[in-house]
Amino acid sequence: MDTQGPQQPRATRNTPVPPPRPTHTPGPGGAPQQSRAAEFLAWLRAPRPTALPGIWRLGHRPRPAEEPELIPARQLLSGALIAFLCGWLLWSLLWNSYLGDFWLWPLLAVIPDHWFRGAADGRVAYSVSSNLYYLLVAGGIMVAVGRLGRWSEVWRRYLAPRFRRSEPQQAPAAAPQEDPAHWPHLRAAGAAEAADKLAAEAGAGRMRDVDLARIERAWQSVASGRHPLDTFTRAVLSDGAAACLHPSGARDLTTRTARHDLRTGQVRLGKAADDQRNPYAYRGTGLALGPELLGTSFLAVGPSGSGKTGAVIRPLAEALCLQALAGRAAVVVVGAAGAGLGPAENYDVVIRIGHPDSEYDFDLYGGTTDPDEAAAVLAEALVGDLADPHPGADSRRSSTVLAQLLGPYRAVHGRFPSVPELRELLDGAPVPLAELRKALDEAGDEPMLRELDARERQSGASGDPGAVLADRVALLDRPAFAGFFDTTGRAQPFSLRALDHPVRVRIDLPERGHADASRILARLVLAQFTASAAHREDRSLFACLILDDAARTITPEAVRGIQRLRSANAGTVLTLRTLDEVAPPLRTALLGAAGCRMALSGVTPWDGQQFAEVWGKEWIEARDVTDRQIVADEPLTKVSHFVRKVITGRAPTAQSVTVRQVERERWSASELAHSVPPGHAVLSLTTVRGEHAPPLLVDLRG
User: Which residues lie in Pro residues bias regions (predicted)?
Assistant: First the structure.
């Protein structure tokens, strides 16, 4: 049963669609089936309490919102000792009758008189009862002084870590109707046979986390009414844990470098530092991201070597590839060739632009047949980054120029022009334009003739963007790209319209030797993604674009497109070395469009100032301590102050403390630039439901 819709053919430049990869279900080092089953069931049954945004929920133990008052060690230990000595003194005074015998009155009031008259059994009873009474009084004194001396806090802080080292007790087994390993929601819906089969597969060690997530996704399509229950049941009874496979046939990634929890969709990036600047509820907890956070888009800024690719991009790409195998997501990962974005085996489509051995091609026009739509996206990629030096080459006017050529060309040839053909048309070459006009005349296509006439009138005029467009297209009309961007039908280039399917795509850009062309292609992918993701018919699939190094790709239209993704169950992950790689008018808009923002160790003070402004200020309690010298009037006091000054070297002073509420930046530009340790970052989060997490200092190595 395929519950993720029709299978998308894998586009190839030279060959038909290759066969799916063999099913691969790796186990932990070839461990026995029973061991793998126990490990999987323990993971499945582990608690995942509701938590604040960004907290790693697997096994999380919620903490109080406010930090409890911590007594200084010297004060705590001295108080405990003094309380013990006071209790010992009180008992000694009572035992030796220095305080009288009033404390024995309760005992004497309840003991019968004949116990004192010499009978043997009476003396024994009196001895036992009196010893019990003494023990009760001593215990009461101990409890009282223990509470006063905070002995329980001393035990928790200093003694318990040394003597409470027993093995953690396993939680009691849940009832079958509550145990997730018995699939109770399937049984409640009438799919008891399928539930029995899946429970047996899990108990036999043949199920993994991807299998569970994929089958849960398939069940959601049944519960929503998109697929019949009988089809789902037959697929499960036939294939077991391998039911409802991804079109590639893969059941897991070949390698994992991060911790993933597919029940919650989270990937762990590190842990919140135990730092006073972090809210107490976050300190020491694991920090993780999932679709509910990536749906607001993610921006990471940090210099080279700060960990953007290895500590952020690679784990997120892994997580979304796993989500795609589970039928929950579609992911497009874009970066320079050799950037370490994961092995090719983790992806369904790997497009190596400019590499002669690339198996896949890329659709320059985004798979659309509408000339106006194709022109708008292509113009955004070609001239979207241009500003004052080329006032006529804005995206709107450039889109009009391209539409005036793409429409007539498609009307004549039934396809869009290739890169060399588009360059000739933009250059105003007479022969291609004459042939195009002749074909339109013969076809009697008056609307397209008017488009072509308008282009010829504007060509060469002041402010005409045609020349700039031709120069930009010339960057793609290089011998290295001769076999790419085919429009003749000899190949089937990959199109981002495949985001309706759980596809995993990696696009390698030719940064080395073709940096300007790589920036054009990065803008093109971003423009096509925002257009395709926002206009999908089925938005139940989370779509995400990961763009490693988004320098010179952010345009006004790109910012608007990113803002629209939140309502389309889609998001972007962008990284920058510095905000200087974005045009000054767009920096604030980009920070506002991204719901999750990360400043890594080593950002510049001017980048830190931008983050400090977007994170705003907070009210804190400031304590001002003033030392005032004590002036003595009495001779004896003067002598004692003199002796104290001789011993300590300081005059006796008295402190006055003033507490007031002040407003300050959550993280200042100086703190972001100089106080973030290596391997750390400051991260703020926003969910698609509008929940916020303040800027947190995160250890990306934790």
Answer: 16-25
Q: Considering all CA atoms of the chain, what is the largest pairwise distance in Å, rounded to the nearest integer?
A: 138
Q: pLDDT digits over 377-423, tens only?
A: 999 999 988 854 444 457 888 999 999 999 999 999 999 999 999 99
pLDDT at 620: 78
Q: How far apart are CA 136 and CA 186, in angstroms?
A: 58
Tell me the pLDDT tens digit for each residue of 644-698. Answer: 676 666 777 777 778 888 888 899 999 999 999 999 999 999 999 999 999 999 9
Q: Alpha carbon 571 to chain centroid distance? A: 11
> Secondary structure of 585-601 in the HEC alphabet?
HHHHHHHHHCCEEEEEC
**Eight-state DSSP code of residue 21:** P
Closest CA to 36 of 186, 202, 166: 202
The strand pairing partners of 298, in sequence order, are: 573, 596
| Cα 320 to Cα 266: distance, rounded to the nearest angstrom | 10
CA distance 508 to 345: 14
- Give dist(CA 655, CA 68) in Å, integer: 25
pTM for the predicted model, two decimal places? 0.83
Find how far residue 395's CA is from the centre of its chain. Answer: 33
Strands (DSSP E) found in 514-588: 542-547, 570-576
d(CA 641, CA 632): 8
Q: For the range 72-81, what are the long-range contacts, defined as Cβ-Cβ under 8 Å and sequence gap of 24 or more?
A: 73/157, 76/150, 76/153, 76/154, 76/157, 77/154, 79/148, 79/149, 79/150, 80/149, 80/150, 80/151, 80/154, 81/149
Q: What does the block give as tokens for 478?
A: 């290089």
Q: Which of 251, 221, 201 is nearest to 41 (CA)?
A: 201
Q: How confident is the model at residue 173 (pLDDT cuts 50, 70, 90)?
A: low
β 680-686/596-600 pair status:
antiparallel
DSSP H helices, 114-190, are 120-148, 151-154, 160-163, 184-188
Across 46-71, b (16+ Cβ under 10 Å) vs e yields eeeeebbbbbbbbebeebeeeeeeee
Question: What is the structure's pLDDT at 646?
Answer: 66
> Would you say how long the chain is, in residues?
702
Q: Residues with Cβ < 8 Å from 482, sequence gap 6 or more?
A: none
What are the backbone angles phi and psi of residue 404, rounded to the nearest 5°?
-65, -20
Name the 3-class secondary structure at 269: strand
- Give pLDDT tens digits for 300-336: 999 999 999 999 999 999 999 999 999 999 999 999 9
CB atoms within 10 A of CB 653: 10
Q: Packing angle between helix 209-223 and helix 314-325, nearest 10 degrees?
A: 50
State the angle between helix axes of 371-383 and 466-476 in degrees (0 to 180), rounded to the nearest 10.
80
Q: Are 297 and 573 in contact (CB under 8 A)?
A: yes
Contact (Cβ atoms closer than 8 angstroms) between residue 673 and residue 657: no
Dihedral (CA of 420, 421, 424, 430) sign:
positive
430-443 vs 446-458: helix crossing angle, rounded to 10: 160
